[in-house]
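Minutes, project huddle
Topic: does the predicted pose make sense with NDP bound?
PN asked that the exact inputs be recorded in the minutes so nobody has to dig through chat later. Recorded below.
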Amino acid sequence: MDKDVEAFMEEIITRNPGENEFHQAVQEVAESLMPFINKNPKYKKAKILERIAEPERVVMFRVPWTDDAGEIQMNRGYRIQMNSTIGPYKGGLRFHPSVNLSILKFLAFEQVLKNSLTTLPIGGGKGGSDFNPKGKSDNEVMRFCQSFMSELFRHIGPDTDVPAGDIGVGGREIGYLFGQYRKICNKFAGILTGKALNWGGSLIRPEATGYGCVYFAEEMLKTRKEAIKGKICTVSGSGNVAQYTTEKLIQLGAKVITLSDSSGMIFDPDGIDEKKLAYVMELKNIKRGRIKEYSEKYGVNYEADKRPWHIECDMAFPSATQNEISKDEAKMLVNNGCICVAEGANMPTEPAGIQVFLDAKILYGPGKAANAGGVATSALEMSQNSMRLQWCREEVDEKLQWIMKNIHNSCVKYGKEGNNINYVNGANLAGFVKVADAMLDQGVI
Ligand code: NDP
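Predicted holo structure (tokens), as shared on screen:
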């Protein structure tokens, strides 16, 4: 490791003990940025990297609620307000039993650079709870969301902090959270994105992360005169991002052969078509079932506790969670001929796996660039809320495609290395410069 990075990381680890995911995210960025910062002493002198890795504010709170049996349950809620230099804090809420400070700080840190990359005026934040929505009734989820918002409301606002969804927080949860905010504050305000269409939501927001990821992959392929049509694709996860990644890939003529959830994966060599995808959406979004049921319905292979990376493919779309591609799995992908990895999830590839992709010089689009379409469309939802109007589907989709192209161009501008594009360095540098310059402009605060 570079000496300056080592010294910097020592401080980060001392200040944030035990927060392994946060260390991992910061180190990846520090490795990209350190040579640039050393060449540009204004950033070094103003300690921008040190300041950017320290949240502006962290809120932690108790979330008590009553289950259907009348028992009182207790969870912990969080909101990490990481950086608001270029706009209100923006970033999702995650409800998952694994949620802790480290995971949310890594996500909030990534979010700052990602949001900067979108070219839109949004700062970075993230939040959530260790609440597990799985197996809970709608009423239990509603009571939890109401309790969560009963504290969160005082920390958010259309010009302060505008959360959205993430793992475990979809349309249902956003609805309950919004309802409680409206009741407590007596205000109909754009304080959340991912809202339903009939009360302030934006067309294409549910689709945006997955669609955007495929648009980004398309741009990467163009640099090698390749196209999506006819490509065999593996997708992990079966939630929001996985579903709409699959939908767009099918529309563009690719063949998607895998999906997964936290219990295992299905392999459908004939490809998941629109009808099968509709079944998955109903299974996951309404019945809240397991992906195993797909294998029973369509008579395909199911592997318990497995991820899809051993399956041969041209392109891979990790769309479930962090650290879901190990070094060995990255090697397997490369050895099996995969030419492009576009990350729908945040930090799904372990650092050693990223190195495998970079060494092999395959097209590797890191999450903070490839999945930025979700937050970008959230920012478009904020704009529509401010103007109190709604754009049509085509208009939002056009803007999303334009944004993904721009993000790709920024990665090329900052990440070009000879004939190759290092999208990791490109995304980190492009995201950093805008926030860093704004921090210089605004002084030491
Ligand atoms: P969902 O909750 O809709 O879906 C998550 C999917 O990943 C589910 O299939 C879930 O399986 C699986 N999963 C979750 N945790 C694990 C785990 N520990 N191991 C294996 N599988 C797991 O979430 P999203 O689709 O919204 O989010 C997926 C990823 O995309 C996350 O990394 C998120 O941060 C990122 N992302 C999401 C954006 C959005 O707009 N929603 C925007 C940008 C990034 P199961 O059903 O068993 O829980």
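Observations noted during the meeting:
- The first strand starts at residue 57 and ends at 66.
- The radius of gyration is 21 Å.
No decisions taken; revisit at the next huddle.
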